[in-house]
Amino acid sequence: MKNFKIAGSRIVKTGLSVFLTAWICVLLDWPPVFAVITAIVTIEPTVSDSIKKGVIRFPASAIGSAYAVFFISLFGNSPLTYTLAAVLTIATCYKLKLYSGLLVATLTAVAMVEVIHSNFLISFFIRLGTTTTGLVVSTVVNMIILPPDYTREITGGLQKVSGQTGIVVKKIYHHLLEKNNEVDITIENAINRLDTTIHKTGTLVRFQKEEAKYHPLAGSDKRKFEHAERQLVRLRLIHYHLNNVMQLPTENINWSEEERLIIFEATDELAEALIHKGSYNSNIHAEYLKKITHIFWKRNNTIPEDTTNFPPEYVILYELVSIYNLAANEYKKDRDI
After folding, report:
1. What's the whole-model pTM score?
2. Whether residues 200 and 329 fall in one domain
3. Which of 51, 194, 321, 335 has a Cα-to-Cα distance from 26 of 20 to 30 A?
4. Please, what is the Cα angle at 197 between 191 and 199, to 5 degrees?
C-alpha cells in the first residue's frame, strides 16, 4: 500500500507535467515530443534530485541537439547521421560526466534527425526551448503538487529493521552458543533481508533530508524525523556489531553452563525487545546487561597479558554488551520524543 501511494503520486505528477508541457509547446508552436520526454524523466523522488539532474540534463540535451544539427547538415537524413549523432552524444556526455542526462540527450539527438529539414540553427534553439520547458514544468510540479513525504515509510522501515535485527540477534547467538560449525543458510538469508531493508530505509531518509531543503519539517514532525535518523544510525551500529560476531569461529568456545544459560536468556530478551518494542522492560533489560557485563569482566581477567588475539568468548560478550547499550539508549530516546 505504501509503495502504491508513492507510485500513485508520481503517476499523477508525471501526467500533469506531460499535459502542461505539451500545452505550453502547442501554444508556442513548438514540437512537444522533446519537451514531454524531458518532463517524464525529470520527475524524481525529491525536488532536490529533479533540480540537480535537470541542471545536468540541459547541457546534455544541448550537446545531443548540436550533434544532430551538425550531422544532418553534412549527411542529411541517413543511417550515418543517426549513428554519429548517437555515438558522439554518448561519448561526450561520458567525457563530461553528464551521466544523468545521457539518455535524454541521446533520444533528443536521434529523434531530431527525423524532424529537421531546414533552418538548422532555429531548430537547435527551439530544441533548447522545449528541453527547458520540460525541465521547468516538471520541477515546479514536483515542488508544488503532492510534495514528497517519506516520514511514514521511514517509520515503517525502521520498525521492520528493528524486528529483523532482533531475529538476526537471536539466530546468530543461538548458533554460537550451540557450537554449530555448519553454515546456517537461514542466518545468511536473514542478514541479507536486513541489509536490504537498511539500505531501502536509508535511501528514504536521504530523500526526506533532501526534500527538507524545499519543504522543511516543523514541530513534532521535525523531531520525529531527527529521531528516525538517530535510530537508523543505532540500528546500523547494531548491524555492525552482529557482523563482527558472524566472523568468529565457533570451535573452541567454552562456556560454563551458568554463563551459557545467562547469555541465552539475555539474547532472547534483547531479541524480543527489538521485535516487539512493547515488550521492552527497562528493569529486566538492565538486569541482564548487568549479568553479561559481569561475565565480560570476569572473562577479561583470564586473558593473558601477552595475548595478540582476543578469545572468541570475550568478543561475543563485548559485542552483546555493546548491542544491549545501544538498545537501551534507543528505548530511552523513544520515551523522550
Report:
1. 0.72
2. yes
3. 51
4. 100
